Amino acid sequence: MRSVKSLIVAGAAALLSSSAFAADLTVPPPMYPPPPAAYGGWYLRGDIGMSNQHVKNLVFTQPGAYDNEVVSETSSFSSAGIFDLGVGYQFNNWFRADFTAQYRGKSDFTGLDMVSGTGPFAGFYNNDNYTATKSELLFLANAYADLGTWWCITPFVGAGVGMARVTISNFTDLGVNNNHGTYFGGPPVVADASAGSASEWNFAWALHAGLAYQVTPDVTLELAYSYVDLGDGVTGPVNSFDHATYVNAPPFKFHNITSNDLTLGVRWNFDNPPPPPPLITKG
To answer: To the nearest whole number, what is the mean pLDDT of the chain?
Structure first.
């Protein structure tokens, strides 16, 4: 009987000892890193797109050019390509800013003036047909608010301010003074003139809105709309084709050039911290 009790006690002691030893060998669960903090860092960007441009009016700046006259004008620009590069910084998930340098390709301009006289010149009228080309360099400092992400799409709004260098080239004015003979004698006069290229620097501003899609942690695509105010454009001195009517006359001025732009862009984040190394456990 005593031998049976001794055997039971010895077995219980061995079982407790084995359990304690097994507890000492238990591998603790792996420690996972905390979620990454909100991203912030430098990025490069590039965009291509098309412009849809407008001008408020076109004015011959020679004093007295439109005295006693009423001018009815129609004008338009053709679409042109847009290319830009920039560098920016993402401060957090909601706010970023960048600086962009943009080349806006040559856009063809056509315009028509219907000019009629008033007062003692009532009944006098003439037509002017204008052509020109226009291009710009645009430098903007922009700030954006990212409005949260839904289904991998992030809408955003933004604004920019900077400078625009507007260049007007190949300007021509082909016109006919139809009632010239009524007041000055002789047949109708063909008043043809041209002007050389000239550039003007202006204050410029823009409003932006669009959608961003993050392809990878380092690459984001953007589809954006921008309203851009480019300021004014000016031609070189005006010279008539007969080298007599106008000789180095004051230029024509394009007042208040604006554009509705649509662009497709990519942002490359080159300051994103690398992901943590994979966890390795030994068992």
So the answer is: 80
